[in-house]
Amino acid sequence: MAGVVSKIPESSSVTSAIEVALPPEAATLYGEVLRAMNQHGVPYAVAGAFALQKYTGIWRLTKDLDLFMKAEDIPAALDYLAQLDFRCETLDPVWLSKAHRGEYFVDLISGMSNAVVVVDDIWMQRTIPALIAGVPSRIISVEDLVGSKLFVIRRERFDGADIAHIIYRMQGKLDWDRVLELAGEHWEIVLWAMILFRYIYPACTHYVPLPLWRDLLARYMHEVEHPNPKAHFRGSLVDSNMFSIDVKDWGLKDVESEYRARELQKRSAGIGKTPGTQRATRKR
Questions:
Q1: What is the dihedral of CA 88, 92, 95, 98, to 10 degrees?
Q2: What's the CATH architecture for 1-140?
Q3: Which of 121, 118, 1, 107 is nearest to 51 (CA)?
Q4: Is 117 within 8 Å of 151 (Cβ atoms)?
């Protein structure tokens, strides 16, 4: 339209195809982090805004660099970054550590806060080459990016739109078996994401393979027609805050705490404490 000038979105939640240039300070910091990981041989997968742009063309303002890596590699990564004058801390030993310097920071992520999805060697093997902040890097595979967003469906943070955009822009050309592998017994969350996609883009229903629609819908109808009266409440896996009343006041089982405890127990034998451990309220 004449007279209308495109501008960079003012919020990171506003999607746009307008390229957002990295501020020089951010580019320098991110490049320093990536070079350190490359130099010391720490396996990682760049995710976040950089991965979303790679697979969808969406540009998003960001003050952080998201690096997915195995939990056992995070202590060494924090040590290397501490040597570069980053302030390092582990906010949640299940999934999140941070390295800060100035107004920018790096998130070192080993899975989801509910411990349903956990980064392992396969994530690293599936990365693809990319140039980030001028540094040859490794970016997360599109399927693992989708998997990392399946449970980010909280009141204060919702990545369902990102998943829909990924399916749309990739025209559904995903390794859907890998997505289901990541979801495991929680395949209904994948079906939910597929239904949301179809609602948003009804003319592109075929981007999701018809056999997959049939398989998951048949599974779903079987569950509906043969409900398990002993099935556990799973609300805390979706949002432990919004469903806290179910656990604290209504006496339903806290499945998220069980998942998290199991994951920490698995790690305890081989992984020591990371610097600056503190409790966190942020969820992914």
A1: -20
A2: 2-Layer Sandwich (3.30)
A3: 107
A4: yes
Q: Percent of the chain having pLDDT more than 70? A: 90
> If we measure between CA atoms, which residue out of 120, 121, 115 comes closest to residue 94?
115
pLDDT of residue 126 exceeding 90: yes
What lies within 8 Å, CB to CB, of 113 at 6+ separation is 92, 94, 95, 96, 260, 282, 283, 284
Q: Copy the structure tokens of residue 27.
A: 């580019």
Residue indicated by tokens 């070079």: 35
State whether the Cα torsion 70-74-75-79 is positive or negative: positive
CB 193 within 8 A of CB 150: yes
Secondary structure of residue 137 in the 3-state scheme: strand
As to burial, measured by CB atoms within 10 angstroms (0-12 exposed, 13-18 middle, 19+ buried), residue 196 is: middle
List phi, psi (to 5°) of 192. -60, -45
Distance between CA atoms of residues 136 and 142, nearest Å: 18
pLDDT per residue over 69-113, tens digit each?
999 999 999 999 999 999 999 999 999 999 999 999 999 999 999
Q: Where in the chain is the domain with CATH 3.30.460.40?
A: 1-140
**Could you give the CA distance from residue 113 to residue 253 in angstroms, rounded to a whole number?**
18
C-beta separation of 86 from 279 below 8 A: no
